[in-house]
Amino acid sequence: MAKTLTVDLGTREYPIFIGSDLLTRTDLYRDHILGGQVMIVTNETVGPLYLDAVKTALGDFQVREVILPDGEAYKTLEVWSRIFDALLSERFARDATIVALGGGVVGDMAGFAAACYQRGIAFIQVPTTLLAQVDSSVGGKTGINHPAGKNMIGAFHQPRAVIADTDTLETLPQRELSAGLAEVLKYGFIRDIAFLDWLESHMAELLGRDPAALAYAIGRSCEIKAQIVAEDEFEAGHRALLNLGHTFGHAIETCAGYGSWLHGEAVGAGMCLASDLSHRIGWLSESDVERTRHLIACAGLPTQPPAELAPEELLGLMAVDKKVIGGQLRLVLMQGLGEAVVTSDFDRDLLRATLACRRP
Amino acid sequence: MAKTLTVDLGTREYPIFIGSDLLTRTDLYRDHILGGQVMIVTNETVGPLYLDAVKTALGDFQVREVILPDGEAYKTLEVWSRIFDALLSERFARDATIVALGGGVVGDMAGFAAACYQRGIAFIQVPTTLLAQVDSSVGGKTGINHPAGKNMIGAFHQPRAVIADTDTLETLPQRELSAGLAEVLKYGFIRDIAFLDWLESHMAELLGRDPAALAYAIGRSCEIKAQIVAEDEFEAGHRALLNLGHTFGHAIETCAGYGSWLHGEAVGAGMCLASDLSHRIGWLSESDVERTRHLIACAGLPTQPPAELAPEELLGLMAVDKKVIGGQLRLVLMQGLGEAVVTSDFDRDLLRATLACRRP
């Protein structure tokens, strides 16, 4: 059975279905497909595993597919444009629907193509990684990378439905499972200390892919994210809390070169840096920082940037991040575990100290 | 003095300033610029004429420019991406503002870049062609072309202000002035027979660039368009009326190759085809069709497609137009002059006859 959450965005409200054996459930798709044409966007890794199942479920529609190369390195303008080539070569109309079958990269590119094709068509997310299930499939952020920065080109475009089938996590590499757990932990750090306690005591089950534990963690993560997004759809205010670890993380990813670090790994290390800076400001205790680092490490994630990355280089990249407003760098920090805040009220020297610090 | 119209879109309401000597008026820009960074997007033709004047007006801001090649043929993904290169090489932040200085192509590309840079930043339109002043600067449609079709990739993104300086029309080539008049005439054909009468009796002044006549025509055109857009921002319903002549026109443009026909020229011929089909259906009299063709011809515009374009080729291209819904081709036709309607209720054979007909 699917658990159903609803993201409440007025006229753009949509359901998130979470559970086993959902990929093939025609009924979950049907209500959210407008016309008769469906373009499935997937990649070379996920396609061979799940494309046939989804096509079977969508047998009543005119279904076509476009298969992209796999990986963050391909989240480019050039690869993105292939989706338009496919839509136009099939003469897909304005009432066509895009189904994004894959991880965050596929979801971001397919969603952004849906936002722009004929100035906006419908799309359904079918996330097949833990990261995409708890993060990129909720909130309507879509986009692609530019050599000068991640997600610099994009749009807000809400899916009509999200189908998160936990069975697809069985084929997920362990490293990607850990990367997804970074985002799961993030929701606890932002605003739910009880969820953080639960994650601490269930980390072994999660890493062992216990279906019940995963379903609970995905559901609670989506609930928290959906709540925050519904409060602030266009990121005017505290939706920025969801960027905990991300400004640090994006700088690490860019510095290390897209693709060498997974997004979740960079966010994991980024959250450790955020806790370190929060401690230097006087908000977190040393034991809070240690607990943060311990949780991140237990999830199989790095707790700091690569030794060779110079603090000045990271600082330079953080300055171009989207979270900069009026030349002022804003960061998400923690006033306590489970109590994140957005702030630009910190000493630059403390930030430099955090970026320079390499703990044992 | 500037005449000011207001496009009423709730929280996204914006002013259109129309008149002489507006380009250099700092006060018209200032209220609509968010942060301190301004990127002027212009092209190789308009830049040398007006860039310095706009930069002087914006002297208090951090102003940079990106100069694109001129012409519809350059309204591509590749050229569009140069705007992001410029924004990122200058590390422009989310509160930066794009100023689009040029015709419709510049406005469409700059506006679409503003829609997508960091998922949406502010932009101001400074249209320097008649076409852009009466059409592309009002309504929030932005986008680029794909080899398989015009404006297939884009977004709805409203400007914060439009500054339409009629002085810039003094440097406009005659052929482009005529192309702009096609859109002006369109507003009369859609819903204002009195405006059509006025245009008929003032065509000589308009072609002679009489400033008062131009200002009146621009103002009335923007009023009609703003009214229709305000009634239907996302083109769910009768905003489609604005496409009078466009489905035919896009097919002609695509067939002839982007850039060989101006958009307005194709729309002019397209409106003649729309009147011809309306006549075959029994809605317009023969004299209405002749009056339509006479008005279009007097404005210096073509009244039919090139002789060598096969009807079947045009029909094929019309089938991929955005106005197709559920496989059904919808067209804007006229039940009378000044009374356009959107309809799919016409005989395909009558459409074929219209596409095959070449009047003397």
Account of the 3D structure:
- The structure is a homodimer of 360-residue chains.
- Chain A has 360 residues and is of the alpha/beta class.
- Chain A has 2 domains: 3-171, Rossmann fold, CATH 3.40.50.1970; 174-356, Dehydroquinate synthase-like, alpha domain.
- Helices cover 46% and strands 20% of the residues of chain A.
- Chain A has 13 helices and 13 strands.
- In chain A, the strands form 4 sheets. Chain A has a 7-stranded mixed β-sheet, sandwiched between helices. A two-stranded antiparallel ribbon of chain A has the order 7-8.
- In chain A, a hairpin with a 2-residue loop joins β12 (331-336) and β13.
- The longest helix of chain A is centred in the middle third of the chain and has 21 residues, at 211-231.
- The N and C termini of chain A lie far apart (46 Å).
- Chain A binds chain B through residues 35-36, 77, 81, 84-85, 88-89, 91, 93-95, 115-120, 141, 143, 146, 148-149, 151-156, 234-235, 319-320, 322, 324-327, and chain B through 35-36, 77, 81, 84-85, 88-89, 91, 93-95, 115-120, 141, 143, 146, 148-149, 151-156, 234-235, 319-320, 322, 324-327.
- Chains A, B: NAD(+) binds at residues 70-75, 104-108, 128-129, 141, 150, 168-171.
- Chains A, B: GO terms for molecular function: 3-dehydroquinate synthase activity; metal ion binding; nucleotide binding.
- Chains A, B: It catalyses: 7-phospho-2-dehydro-3-deoxy-D-arabino-heptonate = 3-dehydroquinate + phosphate.
- Chains A, B: Catalyzes the conversion of 3-deoxy-D-arabino-heptulosonate 7-phosphate (DAHP) to dehydroquinate (DHQ).
- Chains A, B: Belongs to the sugar phosphate cyclases superfamily. Dehydroquinate synthase family.
